[in-house]
């Protein structure tokens, strides 16, 4: 198997100096290290389905359900495993123990590109989970091949992104209590990754929104600019 990397997307760890509203270039680019998690490379099952099926309508009468695919990859759920999802890409089949990967309505976006400009393409995956309350949480994961027979996996803790957004909002004269639940979405671009977050108070009244651009660098994320609007 070729040496490859799989970049999957769980949350953004950000901490930069706060300035006034509007688009802000980050002069001293911060880097945010990822935390290692567990994945397992397995043999490709012979009975994988060809067509996509919605996870919430899957009857479990078949062992596998394809819940997402792109030109380069596919993601599956297994009837006997309620804690993992499985990624098929570049002739490898990888078990991923994602915290919110199952039992939620998921909208998955995937894109293959050389995001770290090292000559090797990565598979970028955004897993957007929608909870019963209507709030969304985009997962960002990083799966990197260690050698031909093993993988290393990383993620960014979501609480750090929430705490940073609260700091930005308070620095821009928002005095209301900010809820821990945010609505945010992630877009994969040729330059890197862009995140939009809507900010709500504890009564779920919208206070404003923030847009953050960042790039992938080694096993960390780097913020390039952000825009906060009240």
Structure description:
- There is one protein chain.
- This protein is mainly beta.
- The protein has one domain (5-229).
- It has one helix and 17 strands.
- The chain has one helix at 158-171; strands at residues 5-9, 22-25, 31-33, 35-37, 39-42, 64-69, 73-78, 81-89, 92-96, 105-113, 122-130, 136-147, 150-155, 183-188, 193-200, 206-217, 220-229.
- The strands form three sheets. Strands 1, 4, 10, 11, 12 and 13 form a six-stranded mixed β-sheet that branches.
- The chain is globular, with a radius of gyration of 18 Å.
* Annotation, overall tally of beta strands: 17
Report mean pLDDT, rounded to a whole number: 72
Provide the domain count. 1
| Unreliable stretches covering 5 or more consecutive residues | 1-21
């Amino acid at each position: 198997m070729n040496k490859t990397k799989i970049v999957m997307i769980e949350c953004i760890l950000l901490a930069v100096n706060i300035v006034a509203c509007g688009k802000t270039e980050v002069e001293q680019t911060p880097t945010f290290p990822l935390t290692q998690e567990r994945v397992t490379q397995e043999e490709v099952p012979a009975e994988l389905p060809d067509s996509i099926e919605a996870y919430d309508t899957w009857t479990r009468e078949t062992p596998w359900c394809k819940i997402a695919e792109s030109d380069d990859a596919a993601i599956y759920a297994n009837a006997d495993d309620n804690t993992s999802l499985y990624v098929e890409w570049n002739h490898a089949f990888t078990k991923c123990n994602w915290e919110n990967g199952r039992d939620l309505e998921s909208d998955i976006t995937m894109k293959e590109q050389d995001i770290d400009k090292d000559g090797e393409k990565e598979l970028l995956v955004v897993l957007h989970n929608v909870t019963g309350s209507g709030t969304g949480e985009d997962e960002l994961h990083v799966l990197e091949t260690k050698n031909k027979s093993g993988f290393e996996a990383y993620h960014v803790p979501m609480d750090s992104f929430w705490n940073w957004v609260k700091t930005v909002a308070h620095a821009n004269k928002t005095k209301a209590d900010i809820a821990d639940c945010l609505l945010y979405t992630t877009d994969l671009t040729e330059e890197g990754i862009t995140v939009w977050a809507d900010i709500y108070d504890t009564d779920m009244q919208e206070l404003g929104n923030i847009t953050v651009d960042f790039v992938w660098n080694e096993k960390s994320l780097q913020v390039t600019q952000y825009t906060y609007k009240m």
